[in-house]
Every structure is written in C-alpha cells, then in structure tokens.
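Researcher: Next sequence.
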Amino acid sequence: MNEVLLKNLALLDLVKDQNIDLVLHEEPDLVVIGRSNLNEDNSRWLNELQVQVLTGYVKDGGKLFVWHAGLAGYPPDYTELVGGRFIFHPQRALVKYFSADGSSFEIVDEHYFVELRGNVEIFLWSESNCGRSTAGWKKRLERGKILALTPAHDEEGLNDERFRSLLVKSLRWFVEG
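Model: Next structure:
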C-alpha cells in the first residue's frame, strides 16, 4: 500500500514561491498539507486563488491529506474545502484519541480544538483535561477525497506505534473504493 500512496506524492510545504498550478498539473496521487498558512515573514503561502486550484484538483479526483497544522490560518474557502479549521490548542498535555472502531491511545500532544464545516464523516475524537474535540474526519468532494487528522505534533507522538497504526489505517481510505 505504501508504494501506491507514495509513488507520486506532493508535499505542499515550505517553498515560499511554490507554484501550486505546476505541482497539481503533474497530477500527484496524494497532496499533503501539514503546516500552517504562515511563512516566517508572516506572509501567507496559500491564497484564495490557489485554494480554487486545489479545489479543482480534488473535484477532479485528487486526494488531499490535511494533517495537524495544515488546518491553521487558511482562508475561508480552504476551510470549506477541507471541512474544518483549527481554533486553538492549550499547552501540551496527555490527550486520549479514540476512534469509531473502539480503538484508543494516549500521547502527550497539542490538543487541537477544531470547528467543522459542511458534511464530513468523523472517525476520530480527542479528550484531555481541557475538553473534547473532533480529531479526524474524511469527506468526498465530487470525484476526490479529503482526510483531516490532528494528532501527533512531535517526534514522540509520531513514533507511537498506536498513532502509526491509526495513520496507516486512515491513509488506506485513499486507495480503497
């Protein structure tokens, strides 16, 4: 499965002058956005016109994985596209993640609180001493698929076997019917 997902992967990330039109013209199998919409100079790296291009990619059958900070600081059209947005997180603390299939795990993490938009299918929730929130959802947009996942801010969380299992299971949705 990893070969199928990663043979043509587009990471839209740190390149300030990255041309999203050119990247999406290559028709990547999966686009991953895992950072906030803020450059070091406080400018935005993804504007509303570029969101329209990304939306077209997804509608035409593209796959978009929005991870953690990939929900923070984006324009309203992006929030509508991905089905939600980051609101805030308290200081790192023990967060319990639990899924629709009954599995759960705990890691020290930034407990993301999010606001959902539109029709999404929630498959993961989170809970800490600060409350409960949605932590993972998926949605279809015409012929495309979008997956959003909030857990795992640092190396400890990323290396947690239970998180890694959740990640693989979540990404598998992209290659299944």
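Model: Strands lie at 9-11, 30-33, 63-67, 84-88, 93-99, 104-109, 113-116, 121-128, 131-141, 144-149. The first helix runs from residue 2 to 6.
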